[in-house]
Amino acid sequence: MPTPRPHRPSRKPARKPTEGARRVVPKAVPKATTVRLQAELLAGLVLLQRILKKPMNRMINEAVRSYVERQSSDVEAELQQVLERVKAYRRSDPGYKRLWAEFVDAEARHGKDDPVEGRIKSAGPVQAKVRDILSR
């Protein structure tokens, strides 16, 4: 049976900041993470580590940082293109008048045969009573 740990008082209570005092933001502590690398990637890292005489952790951080920056830039460019297309569409159809007209036409053409529209089935006595109460 494990023995209970003795109660230790917590750290000093946090002081309230005084008026006009600047808040100090602590530096982020690196988080340990488990990553599964393919054998050939690990062999390449070990080789580079020996040649460059750099810690493997630093090389991995540099590689991930480069990847995140490159991907972020690509995603930003793609989102910018999407935004430009949306803006162009809004300029071409202000108030979405053409869009609404197409929607109304499609509903008029296909609405009567739309299985999603649903139909009320004949109700049993309990359902009929509930519907009657709800419709009041």
Quick take:
It contains four helices and no strands. The chain is an all-alpha fold. The model has no long low-confidence stretch (mean pLDDT 83).
SSE succession: HHHH
The overall pLDDT, averaged over residues, is 83
Give me the oligomer status. Answer: single chain
Please outline the major beta sheet.
none
Question: How would you describe the shape?
Answer: elongated
How far apart the termini lie comes to 67 Å
Strand proportion, as a percent range, falls in: under 5%
Radius of gyration: 32 Å
Secondary structural class: mainly alpha
* Structure summary, number of beta strands: 0
Instruction: Give the uncertain stretches in residue-range form.
Output: none
Tally the helices: what do you get?
4
Helical residues, percent: 55-70%
Using brief descriptors, characterize the structure shown.
136 residues, mainly alpha, 55% helix
